[in-house]
Write a structure and sequence with these properties.
By secondary structure, the chain is mainly α. The protein contains four helices and no strands. It has a domain of 43 residues.
Amino acid sequence: MIGKLLGHTQVQTTARYAHLANDPVKAAATRVSDTIGAAVAGHKKKRPAGKAGGTGIAQRRNAG
C-alpha cells in the first residue's frame, strides 16, 4: 500500500528504503496522533519552543 502511494511498482523498491525512515515516521505519527487526541479531548496543545511555525495569523493579530 505505501509503495503504491510512493509510486513504486515493485515491493522490493519500497523494502529497500523502508528502513531509512522508521524512527522519523513513527515520531511524526506520534505527534500527529497526540495533537488529534488533544483536540478531540478539548485540550489545546502547545507547540514546543523552537519548532517550525513562526508567527501564525492569530499571533500577528494579537501582537498589535
